[in-house]
Write a structure and sequence with these properties.
Elements (H helix, E strand, L loop, with lengths): L1 H15 L3 H8 L12 E7 L2 E6 L10 H16 L5 E6 L10 H9 L6 H24 L4 E5 L2 E3 L1 H7 L3 E5 L3 E3 L13 H8 L3 H10 L3 E2 H7 L4 E3 L2 H16 L3 H15 L3 H15 L3 H11 L13
Parallel strand pairs: 2-3, 3-4, 4-6, 5-7, 6-9
Antiparallel strand pairs: 1-2, 7-8
């Protein structure tokens, strides 16, 4: 039933460009989308696009124990799925996420078993590194990941979005590095990725040390997000359109671009160039280059080219 609905949505979109409200309905899981997960809803609103929706709206999409493993399982599946070329992440309900579900997670970090401090610490380290993988798996996924934020994005939500490739938000969105307010230092990605996302180290320090809220306009001007939309309907329509633009390009080119952007972020220019040369000495030997060049000479969009699955 889901595949029939998805094909119908795609056909209508290509014919007349769906109005924003219809796009939101197409990307929403509340209409009966099946999912193997308890905290995530998965749908396919258009060809080659996977929509991952944080789906605990009654709990403000707070991140409980199941979420931390389900995100890893979900993105491992997506990474290996040749039918998926782009991912869109959003949140169901009134806000994107309230962050960590402290009540549900407390037993993992506050009730450690062990004969002494060293053994308890070793177990806690294993738990923390497991949680870190929940968002690192997004960064490791070779498919570009767009995240669409509406309302609040708190605590663990910042860890999540900074692992994504493109960040969009609504005008009413706000962001908060909340951890110092609950007595800990953010430990699953924010302190490592946010300084690489925002150009001002001083602003990063301010946000992390004061736990103040950052609203949409400041998020845009600082580089945390690249676009701000009037409301969720407009944002989801914009996210889907951007995802369709990316999905219409060569998957060899798109995925290679993501891999090398991340590599270059963490290495010197010389190292990045050397890695790029090694990468493209094989990736340039693809039919996609000639297909794309021919489309360009014929003044056609790359989206008209039938690229093979990767």
């Amino acid at each position: 039933m889901l595949s029939v609905i998805a094909r119908s949505v795609l056909t209508k979109y290509r014919r007349s460009c769906l109005p924003s409200q219809a796009v939101v309905r197409a990307m929403s899981s509340s209409g009966g989308t099946s999912s193997p997960y308890t905290t995530l809803a998965i749908s396919h609103p258009a060809e080659s696009i996977t929509h991952v929706e944080l789906h605990r709206p009654e709990k403000r999409n707070a991140m409980n124990k199941a979420f931390w493993s389900e995100m890893v399982d979900c993105f491992n599946v997506i990474a290996a799925d040749p039918d998926c070329r782009v991912v869109v992440v959003s949140g169901a309900g009134k806000i994107f996420t309230a962050g960590i579900d402290l009540m549900d997670m407390a037993s993992d970090v506050l009730q450690l078993e062990g004969d002494d401090t060293a053994r308890m610490s070793w177990k806690l380290r294993k738990i923390i590194t497991k949680y870190q993988e929940t968002f690192s798996v997004i960064e490791k996924c070779p498919k570009p990941v767009l995240v669409a934020v509406h309302g609040a994005c708190v605590g663990g939500g910042i860890d999540l979005i900074t692992a994504c490739d493109i960040r969009l938000c609504t005008q009413d969105a706000w962001f908060q590095v909340k951890e110092v307010d609950v007595g800990l230092a953010a430990d699953v990605g924010t302190l490592q990725r946010l300084p690489k996302v925002i150009g001002s180290r001083s602003l990063v320090n301010e946000l992390a040390l004061t736990a103040r809220k950052m609203y949409a306009d400041e998020a845009k001007s600082s580089g945390l997000v690249s676009r701000v939309f009037a409301d969720k309907e407009a944002m989801m329509a914009g996210a889907l359109e951007m995802a369709r633009e990316i999905a219409g390009r060569s998957p060899v080119a798109v995925q290679g671009t993501k891999v090398n952007l991340i590599y270059s972020r963490d290495h010197s220019v010389a190292e990045g160039l050397d890695y790029m040369a090694t990468w493209n000495m094989s990736m340039l030997q693809t039919h996609d280059v000639m297909k794309s060049a021919q489309a360009s000479m014929e003044k056609k969009s790359p989206k008209t080219v039938a690229f093979s699955k990767l």
